Every structure is written in C-alpha cells, then in structure tokens.
Amino acid sequence: MGGLQKKKYESGSATNYISRNKARKKLCLSLADFRRLCILKGVYPHEPKHKKKVNKGSTAQRTFYLLKDIRFLLHEPIVGKFREYKIFVRKLRKAYGKAEWGGVERLRDNKPAYKLDHIVKERYPTFIDALRDVDDALSMCFLFSTFARTGKCHVQTIQLCRRLSVEWMNYIVTSRSLKKVFLSIKGIYYQAEVLGQTITWLVPYQFAHDHPTDVDYRVMATFTEFYTTLLGFVNFRLYQTLNLLYPPKLDVKGETELKAEFEEDYAMDSESYLEKLSALSASLARVVSSAEEEEAEMDYFPVEGEDMEKMEARVKAQHEQDKQKKLFEGLKFFLNREVPRESLAFILRCFGAQVSWDKSLCIGSTYDAEDETITHHIVDRPNMDKQYMNRYYIQPQWVFDSVNAKMLLPVEDYFLGVTLPPHLSPFVEEKEGDYVPPEKLKLLALQRGERPVEEDEEDDEEEEEEEDDDEEEEEDDDEEAEEEAKLKEMEEKKSQGKALPVKVTPGKVKSENRHRLEQEEKAEEKRLAIMMMKKRDKYLYDKIMFGKKRHVRETNKMVAKRKALDEASKADRKKKKQKKQ
Amino acid sequence: VTIIHQASHIILLYVNMAAARRHRRVAASQPGFIPLKSDLDGKSLSIGRRKRVNKNKKKNWNKYSDINDVEEFLDDVRLQERATGGLIADKTDESLFFVDTGTKESVLEPETGKKSKPLRIDLILQPTSNVAPPKDILAHQRPNAKKERRIAQKIQKLTDMGVLPRRKRPQKVPVKEKPIISKDPDRNFYDIWSAGSPETADPYYLEQTKKKLVKRPEKMNEKPSLLPAVEVIAPGGSYNPDFLSHQALLLEAHEVEVTKLKAETKLARKLAVNKKEFATQETTFKEQIEGLVEEGEEPENETEGPEAVADADEDEAVGPTAQQEKKTEKQRKREKDERIKELQKKAARQMIDSRQQLFKLRSIETELKKREQKTKMRQIKRKTQQEAQKTLPRRLGKLKFQAPDLDVQLSDELAGSLRTLKPEGSVLKDRFKSLQKRNLIEPRERAKFKRKHKLKYVEKRDFKEIK
C-alpha cells in the first residue's frame, strides 16, 4: 500500500465547480458586471449534486458555477470592455469633480461601447436555434416597449424595443402566421407558427403598469439588451425570407394613403414613420414588387396505401390552414375608440381584413366611420346612438373567438349589449374523457359544420349534452369490451397448453335467457381473467381501472355542477321574467 | 542746427579716443560706429596701470584678459539693433534727424473714449524689440546642389510612378467611427447567419493572435430547465372565463393560501409561551431556598458514595482470570477430532444443499426475475424523479425560489367586457419570476442600504433661538 496520501477536495466535484465570488475575482470584475456578463453569455449557476463536497466541507448555501464555463468566460472580449468602462466612469467622475468640462466632453466622445453580435452568433449557431429561443426575447421586448420613458430604464432601450416589436408584428401580419390568441387577466397571449416553430409570447395590456419593487431592473435590462440584439437579427432574416425590405418600408400605395393632413400633431418627424408602421394598416414594401403572391403549392407524389392516407390528411390540414389564413379576407372593420386598437388591428390584419379607426385616435386610419362598405363595426359600449343598417355592431371578443375557432362565429352572441359567452383558452387541449365545457362542445359542433343550436332552446341543448355524455360512456364500454376480448384470447391460449382431464356428465336442460347467459358468461370470464392475472399485472390493472373510474367520477361531478348552475341561473331568469311581467 | 552740431561733436570725440584704447580699436574695426550709450564715451573708463601676468598659461589668458570692452560693445550693438532695427551708423541722416521748424499747434482730436486706449497688459506683451524674428532657422544650412538635384530627381521619378510626396497628397481626415452601441435604436442589423467566406488564414496564427473565438463548451448549450419560456395561464385566467375552469383556478389559489396559513399557525403554535411553565410564587420560593433546606438528606448521599466507589474498585479487579491448568494430550486430541468432524459435516451439508438447489431451479429463477423486476422498477422510478427534477427550480443561492402568487380575480372582480377589464398582476414580475424558475438567475434579495455612520441629530441655531 504505497503512494501518497490523497488530499481532500483536490479532485472530483470539488474541482469542477467554482463559487460565484471566486469566479468574480478570477475575472477581475465587480459583482454587477459579472452578473451582466453571465446573462449575456448564457452562463447560468449550477446546483451541484454533492454540495458539501463542492463547498469543501461547509454547508453554507452558495452559488456555484461550472469551472469550465468560467474559464470560457475568460476569453470573452467584452470582459475587457467592462473593465474599460469602469475606468471611463472613474475618469469621468474625476473630471466632473475638477470641473474640467472639456475633459468631460472628450471622455464622453470616447465612451467605450460594445456589440453583442458575436455572442448571438456563438449562442445560436443556426437561425433555427435562434428562432426556437425567441419566445423570451419577444415577451421581453413587448414588455419594455410599453414602459413609460420615466427613467426606470434607458429611453434608447425602450425605443429599440418598440421598433423591434413593431417589426415583428409587421412580419406576422405579412406572413399571416398567427394561430392563437388568448385574452387573460395578465395580458394577451399570442401564438404563431414561424418557419415550423411554434412561438408564444405575452403582450401586456396598454397602460397597465405598476412598477413592482421586488424586481431587479438591472437584470431585466441586461436580458433585454441581449434579446434586442437577437430579435434584430431574427427579424432581418425573417424579412429576407419574405423578400421584404429591411428596415421595413410601407409600400407606395400605403405611403400615399397614409399622408395625413396634420401629421405633426401625432408624432415628431423622427417618430412618425415608426408610428405609421405600428398602425399596421398598410402593407410593407417588397424587394421585388410582385403583383400577386405566389402560393407555394404542395408537391404531389403518387403514393399508395397508408402513405396515401397520410398524404390526404396532410393535404387536408394544409387546405384548412390556408382557409384559416384568409379568415377575415374581404371584410372591412372599423374600430371604435374604446377598443384596444393595436391588438385588434394586429389580429384583423393577420387574417386579411381591412381595418380603420377614427382619425383622431391614431395615425394611419384609412377610412371613416361613415364608409358604407364597412361590414363590421367593433364596439365595446352598451349602446350606440347612430347605427348603420348594413353592418354588424359586435363586441371585440368576437374577433378573438373567431380566430381561435378558425371560423367566423355567428355574430348574434356578440351583438351590442349582449352578455358574452365565456372566452375559452385555446391553449388547453382536452384529452378523451376530460371535462369539456359545453361552450366548447358547441363550438366543436359548429366546426364540424352542424347547425347552430338556438339560444332559447336550452332544454334541447342540455339534452344534446346528455347525449354527448352518453356517447362518451358508450365509447368507454366499447373499450372495455375490446380489452375483455383480448384477455379472453390470452386465457384460451394458456388453457390450450395444459388440458386437464375432466369428466363430463349429462345434465338437465334449463330454459334460460340466452342473451343474459351470454352476458353472464362474459362477466364471469372477465372476472376469471382478472383473477388469473399475475400479481404485478393485477396491480397495474387495478391502478388503471381506479384511475379511469376516478376520471369518470370527476367528469360526472363537473357536469352535474354545471347542470346545477345552469338550472339555478335559469330559475333566476324565470323569476326575473315573472317580475317583469 | 544744434542737433547736427552735436552729432558732429560726438564723431569728433570718437575719433580722438580711438587711438588711445583697445576698446576703441575694436570700435574702429566697425567703420562709422556710433555708440548709443553716453557712458561708452570713455569718461567712465578707468585708466590704471596694467598688471603684468605671465601669458604662457591658458588659465591666465582667461583670468587676466579684459573682455569687458568687447562685451560692452556687443551689448551696445544688440541694443542698437533692438531699439532701431539696425546700427545707427548705417542709418541715413533723414531717418535720424529732422528739421525742427517749431511746434505746430495740432488740433486735438476729440477723445473717442476708453476704447482707443489699449490695455496695459497688451502693451506689456507687445514686442519691444525692433529686430525681426528669424524667418528660417535653417537658412544657413543650405544643402548642396548635388543633393538637391538628386532629391528633385527622386521626386520626379515618384510622381511619374504616381506616388505623390506626402505634402501634396490629399490629406485624409481621420473620421473617427463611433462604435456601435447595442442599445442604439437606429442601429443596423444584417444577416448574421449567412455563410460568410470561409476562413483561409492559418488556424495557428488566428489562435495565437486571439482572432479565433474559443469554442463554447457543449454543456452550456443545454437549457437549465425544461420549462417553456412563456407559460400560458390556466383557462380560468381568461378575462371572461368559463365558470368551472374559473372555479378550478380559484380552488388552486385557495389551496396555496391554506398551506401558507397552516405553516403560519404552526409556527405561531410552536413559538407560543406555555402558561404552565410560568413562574408561580411557589416555584420562585423553592428556587430561592434551594440548597438551604435539604441538608438532612446530604449525609445519606455521602454514605452511599464511598460504597459505590468501592464496588467500582472490585469490578476493576475482576479481570480475565489467569490461565487454568494445562490441557492434557487426550483433551487436545479430542478437541481436534471434534473440529475436523464439524468441518466435514459442514462440507457435506453444503454439498447436499447445492444438490438440492438443482431441484429448486424454478423458484430460484423466479426469485432472480423478481429481483430484476425490482431493480428495473427502481431505475424507472429514479429516472422519472430525475425528469421531474429538471422542471423544478433548483437551490442556487442563499434564498429558495418563492413561487409568485397566483393571479386570480374573484367572481365579483371579473369584468364583463374588455373595456372594463382591470389587469391583474404585473407582466414584469411574471417574466422575472419565470427567469428564476427556469434557473437562469439565482433568487436574490434586494441589497439593503447600510448606513456607515450613525445619524446625529442637532438642533439648528435658529430653531434654538425661537425657544
């Protein structure tokens, strides 16, 4: 047993990790700079498996980083810039202290600056990588662009965020890739499919800001700094794929149309173009101006059998998608001034509608409320004084629900002053046997092309619901039967192997219900099969059955609750009616 | 007329003295020299006996040769040059003299005010010397013709080739490019992912000059959490929710609150003061007289003490007893036989057992299968646990991640329409918490402001006076 004695904490996990403070010292940076660098480079803290070992015997809670990551950070050119910036601040302070204004100016001119382009390239080697991670960037940019310019963060950052988010919205409008919208109490969730990637982002409502105190603004600003760079490059590439000009330009038609008389009243010259872009009412200019968009036709390969079915399904899906893209095509909307203009304009334009609003509301309105060709007027107030005969006056929820339903919903439920149906989340995907709200069932029926049920005939509706439930139960039964059949087969196979010597004696004939007998037999067989199961199979089987039963029970409970609620509300209504009479 | 007379007198005087002194000899070498200062006229010059010194030593040359006259002369020359811009002797008569025709009453110009009077500081700073500043310092260094010719030829050759001399080249104004700031709202973006021209330079060179970026560790590309970047709120969080899903969300929020309340009450219960343990009069009295009353019992204890000690002593004495008598040969043999027999018995038993196992093969097989099954189950369980861990927030620092409060609106808070909707919670906080939840940043408390020195309150004098 020779050799040197091994020392503790000189190999293994103790050497793979480094504490935050040590890392900071290794990089010669202040804590704030270190944190900034980590965020920009995408270096995140790790929780080691054996903390005590890593912490050299101490159990104090520390933040650890992988040593390899920190070594990698040592090569980053931005680290040098951070140090330069530190020196710059020191010099500036000194110059201020000595009141050397010339010196201050000279220092300001030579303020060290850095770019994050190489980091974007390094973190996302391909465009698709970047697109996968763009959710965060979008949410952050949309959030920052709504901030007031009150000094919570740099005005420059807010401007850049606004520009990028407008660019993104314009891209989504032009590519018509929006899929889902959800109005929540927090903000508006959007989902789009861009180049095969599903992208979800959250947009806060306008003017809904209280600045929470327990949020580290510096950290958020750093994230935003990186995300704006990323989103800029992503936008550029996306615009290229659609042959659009970047930075975005309105096409000639739009530019002439949007020449408002009192442009200066809306925005300064420097900002008016961005405002016009953000109005979203005109389309963008293309690099090669094409009169008609070429629709990429799906390639057709002659195939047989299963592939054929798949192919057909795919063609059908594609067809549906195209149909959804042109949902509002040919409709002409007018937004009243109390509705959220930006989100509605964005959504309507995404599906090919024409939108306008009052001239005094925002720049970029294209027609007045008096226009006779308007088909839908979106209003969010109990009543309107002046109404035109040839247009629908609807509440804004109709637009959102129609988008989620992928079809134009009947407008009757959304008329002025009507109590709205609930706004369902399109992000929930119900599995079989889950509780499905009756509104959704109705919607599904509509989508299938069934005749919409009249509102007044509630009883019918309920019946239908019940029927639906029955159907479900039947389905369940069918499944059980299938299982039984399988088990039976297994049983038979087993029994074939070991045939036992059994004596058969003649018995008396019993007159019995044949059908019942059959059923009994079946039940008995099932019982036997269950009995004959191996212990572990039995365990699993019991678990599955229990889960199913519980699920059914829960669903039934929900349905019963809903029924009770509906009845209660119905009773209320009846009472009210009686009172009125 | 008088002035002319005076000038002729000076000249005469000069001529008279020139022969007498060495100074005058120097002056004589300057034809027509007129000293400006009057004390150079010779009156001040002392005429004494010359001291005789050996002049064969260099030291004496310096020491005893009087060069005052030369220096004075030169000073005078310089003075003249400063004052008049040249030697007075060289000046023409017209420049030196004028014909005095009596004072002419000149019409005084009306004073234009203070403006006309230059500042004294400007006057001081004005050049006092009439000597023109040297135009070209190197004027005396005339390069020779050959050199000049050669230079000219070279320039000619270069211009023929198209290379202009530096002086004639159009001067490039160094335009300082401002570095792009990542926050600039007007910055330009480009296609960063386009395939640029492949790097042709030597990789070793690039590596050594730090032009090649270091490869990013693979592990850094893994996401620290499997959670999606944007978690969509539950369907109950809709602004106009379906009744049941809203109830479900409310229930969830309620459960969270209940657990919080439970923890709080538990803490309060544990920290509550037990009233039974309060000091009563009795207990305080007991405590006070402790050690005073119980004297009677103590002697008993003392008597018990020594006995116990003695017992302990006895116990110590009982150690391993000494070896008993020696075993006989017979005894040894018997013991050995017994040992061997036992071993044989054991071996036989083992043999039988192993043979018996042959008949138990099936049960053994089932046992093995069972064991395998168990390990497999454990593996699966562990794996699922690990997967679940990947979505959980980790402990990354001093503080644990604290889930934000669920954003919920009660049934009476729900808005009927989009116009009357009152947004709940803050998106900023939601994003921040999401970053923490996905292990991108460690949860942290805001640094508290620490006062270095204690505050000292002093009444102002004015305030005191009022009292």
- DSSP summary, beta strand count of chain A: 9
Question: Largest sheet of chain A, order of strands side by side?
Answer: 7-6-8-9
> Which value, in Å, is the CA radius of gyration of chain B?
60 Å
Report helical residue fraction of chain B. 40-55%
Note the beta-strand portion of chain A: 5-15%
Provide the gyration radius of chain A in Å. 33 Å
What is the average per-residue confidence, as pLDDT of chain B, rounded to a whole number? 80
Counting copies of identical and different chains, the oligomeric state is heterodimer
Question: What structural category arises from helix and sheet content of chain B?
Answer: mainly alpha
Mean pLDDT of chain A: 83
Helix count of chain A equals 22
For the biggest sheet of chain A, the summary is: 4 strands, parallel
Describe the structure.
Chain A: Its main location: nucleus. Chain A: Keywords: Coiled coil, Nucleus, Ribosome biogenesis, rRNA processing. Chain A: Residues 484-495, 509-523 have a biased composition (Basic and acidic residues). Chain A: GO terms for molecular function: ribonucleoprotein complex binding; RNA binding. The complex is a heterodimer of chains A (581) and B (467). Chain A is of the alpha/beta class and 581 residues long. In chain A, 54% of the residues lie in helices and 7% in strands. Chain A has helices at 13-16, 20-27, 31-41, 51-54, 67-73, 77-97, 101-109, 117-123, 127-132, 134-145, 155-175, 217-241, 252-257, 263-266, 269-279, 305-325, 341-350, 397-405, 438-448, 458-497, 514-532, 535-580; strands at residues 17-19, 64-66, 178-183, 187-194, 197-204, 332-335, 354-357, 376-378, 392-394. In chain A, the strands form three sheets. A four-stranded parallel β-sheet of chain A has the order 7-6-8-9, with helices on one face. A three-stranded antiparallel β-sheet of chain A has the order 3-4-5. In chain A, strands 1-2 form a two-stranded antiparallel ribbon. Chain B has 467 residues and is an all-alpha fold. The longest helix of chain B is centred in the C-terminal third of the chain and has 31 residues, at 329-359. At the A-B interface, helix 5, helix 8, helix 10, helix 11 and strand 5 of A face helix 9 and helix 14 of B.
